[in-house]
Amino acid sequence: MQAKLALEDGTVFTGLAFGAPGEKLGEVVFNTSMMGYQEVLTDPSYTGQIVTMTYPLIGNYGTTSDDQESSDVHVEGFIVRELTKVPSNFRSHRDLDTFLRASGVIGLEGIDTRALVRRLRVRGSMSGILSSTDLDDASLVAKARAFPGMEGRDLVSEVVPDRAFEWKQGFGQFAEHVIVARPPSKHVVAIDYGMKWNILRCLVQSGCRVTVVPGTAPVEEVLRHEPDGVFLSNGPGDPAAVGYAIETVKKLVDAKKPLFGICLGHQLLGLAVGAKTFKLKFGHRGANQPVLDQRTKKVEITTQNHGFAVDPTSLPKGMEATHINLNDQTLEGMRHTSLPIFSVQYHPEAAAGPHDSSYLFEEFRASMG
Q1: Is 75 helix (H, G, I), strand (E, B) or coil?
Q2: How far from chain centre, in Å, is Cα 5?
Q3: Is 347 a catalytic residue?
Q4: Residues forming beta bridges with residue 290, ordered by sequence position
Q5: Could you give the C-alpha distances from 172 to 92, 134, 258, in angstroms and in order?
Q6: How many CB atoms lie within 10 A of CB 226?
Q7: How far apart are the C-alpha atoms of 94 and 338, rounded to whole Å?
Q8: All domains of the chain, ordered by start, with CATH?
Q9: Catalytic-role residue among 8, 263, 323, 332
Q10: Closest Cα partner for 96 from 53, 46, 49?
Q11: Pairing mode of beta strands 12-19, 2-7
Q12: CA–CA separation, 186 and 252 (whole Å)
């Protein structure tokens, strides 16, 4: 079956459909990881986005429930150069085509992904539409141009859990070497704005009892659980649009609770202390981003997935930059100079890797005394 991708600038790519039939609008972005496509697909941070993988062969190791980062697929659509029809992996439960079809997500293969990514790098992330039903170029371009984009949209409310719950699962046998398992000695409340499950596994592995609360929870609900520390999760969309979360984080800072934020959690912390955020031209998405820890002068290779960033020139007194992206000098980490509060823009939980930054979970546990 034929399918098309149309961008707001009028460009149309024609290829073959896989996964579920249909039509989806979203922000078209690209990810430079060579593996970890199932983790990308099930990461709630990708809500509202059509994801293009730059690695040319995708699906070669199939899919497995062990690699899920949430209970469902969250991307609006998925684009690859070539889809592997027959996966080879003893852990595989289903091939990628079947996996996407069961999740109701449309895929597109057979287009020149290099040309698409080059266009996104030059012009920036664009609104687009992926369709296997409407194949009229003019109609598709018009729909793409009508898409509102990501700025100003609260997507967190679309992916938060319905209620609080306990999380007890640590690492499986293939990841036990990343963080040495510790018995639970600290209670962490993890605020879920669209959280990856591997973050929760890392918290448990590092010695935390974990209670997850929805990202819409007020500060009273968070503190009612009497946490030793509070974790601020990743999530989708524009951080400046999530006003209720910013207010909650402000009150947690005032309460002087140990805080650790990742990705959207980092951005919300920045806004809560008075810094500003801005939208990146095409974002950082992949497993090969070099970050300098300015405290140790060590370079970490990191996994990233964000389209917004905290402006380092807007950090108020009492907050300092700790990590810097070596590709474009954007802010990748910050901490409070007198309180046990810190955050990073990248993903130290990093499934499917790399694992250079897993030490941050140990730092968080230590910050709780």
Answers
A1: coil
A2: 23
A3: yes
A4: 301
A5: 16, 43, 28
A6: 9
A7: 50
A8: 2-145 (3.50.30.20), 156-367 (3.40.50.880)
A9: 263
A10: 53
A11: antiparallel
A12: 18
Closest by Cα among 121, 63, 7, 39 to 304: 39
Q: Scanning the structure block, which residue is given the tokens 């597109």?
A: 108
Cα-only R_g, the chain:
20
Marked catalytic residue, from 8, 76, 109, 349: 349
63 vs 208: CA distance, rounded Å: 29
- C-alpha 215/C-alpha 30 separation (Å) is 26
Helix, strand, or coil (residue 186): strand
* pLDDT tens sequence across 197-251: 999 999 999 999 999 999 999 999 999 999 999 999 999 999 999 999 999 999 9
Residue 178: pLDDT band (50, 70, 90) is confident
Segment 247-263, tens digit of pLDDT = 999 999 999 999 999 99
Tokens of 174: 């293939």
**Can 263 be counted among the known catalytic residues?**
yes
Active-site option among 74, 284, 323, 347: 347
